[in-house]
């Protein structure tokens, strides 16, 4: 949130952001603990279903992307559905830059010096340059320095594309009556879904070849692969899930707040939320089965080949749709449904989630490398070691993230806002007077939304 405050935000989504971060931390901690002998998931029987939930948190990355798609596309949706002034591209880029650059570059600098000094020599200069330019989802840098960094590359690349993608969509959506604009917007986003899944099929099934190999030279074909897919895909179908929710949200809150669609979604909100959770759990079983092939969930064995084949093509899309359903249900849900997600500590976790996400993995590895060997001679059991592991995260990662949020992130956001204000137009005055225009008139020229914060 701007200046570290809760104003101009959607409270329930602050909590959702906190859950996304906590789920990723839980996944990494459980997985690292699993491979270092301090936690053993049940791989068969009823316990396997609980273990599937405990290792589900990897999908928290997808939830971050859905939130970004929703929050950042929301101002553009409002503009294209209501003919209000188009959001400033310059302001968008400045706010995004000062939101993510300070925390990221401070973390990169410290990690290179203290955790991965080997990457400061000339032989790794190219890899470091990819990190500096947010292209660390390219090959060779996927797991270097700090594994979670690759997702920031996808976020940053989405930021670069979004204003121009929104402008292209607006060229089609803004034509005609308002009643049909939501349908046209959904059609455009459907193409984005197709593009995201299509690039995955092109790379995973066709190996990045196909007809394009006859059009482009090997060099340019390789560049196309890197910038359209990278190592794991650009997740445009996931961002599109959040963008579609933004379109529906804008339509039902501005154009037809008491219309049929708004009434229907409000009535179905608990069902939408439950449907999203059900789909998420089913996909988590699929994910868990492939983490331990041949050892768990044997009822899936007959479908093993298909589950492997379609995993990287369709899992991100299904996760994105599931999270979008949950968010849709929460946005329109009753107070009893929203209240758990608006809990103060959970919202605060959402506030510091950026630094917490960046640093938690390295801190987990520090525990395994330096602390665990000192506890193992004590012959403590797995529950005790696992508890110590969690205490380590609580007393290190959370305080560090709070400090970085206050010392690095908030000053960065405030500086970005100051720079943005320098580019804002002066107040407009009524002709022949020194009085400002009426508020309802001025608002048309300055309408914006301030919830497009880093998810």
Automatic annotation (TrEMBL):
Example GO BP: polysaccharide biosynthetic process
GO CC, any one term: membrane
InterPro entries for the chain: Acyl_transf_3_dom (IPR002656), Acyltransferase_3 (IPR050879)
GO MF, one example: acyltransferase activity, transferring groups other than amino-acyl groups
Domain (Acyltransferase) ranges: 13-405
Keywords tagged on the record: Membrane, Transmembrane, Transmembrane helix
Membrane found in the keyword field: yes
Transmembrane parts of this sequence: 12-33, 53-76, 97-115, 156-173, 185-203, 238-259, 271-292, 317-337, 349-370, 390-408
Annotated Pfam families: Acyl_transf_3
Protein name: Acyltransferase 3 domain-containing protein
Source organism (scientific name): Dictyobacter kobayashii
